[in-house]
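### Sample
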Amino acid sequence: MLTETAKVKIIDFGNSWDLDPQTGLCHEADGTAHWMAPEAIRQKGQRLAYDTKCDIWSLGITAIEMAEGKPPYADQYPVEHLIREAQPPKLQSNRW
């Protein structure tokens, strides 16, 4: 989106959620699994409880995608299980 003075603004409120005012946690999740933090991926019978640290996770995954051209686990399905159970992803290339 551009402002009247041609400044670029990034907006996306399609997947925004409210934090519980008493706990500071979010209990709903939606998004693309490749960029979701492990604690934001629902497991059967589990109630979600995560905070704004998930945004930092997603930013890190975006940085990896920018460096390597694809997000971690891009060729593996179901990716949700890998994200919940695996170690955090690392850059594959030594050039970074």
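The chain has one domain: 1-96. This sample (Serine/threonine-protein kinase svkA-like) is used throughout the tutorial notebook.
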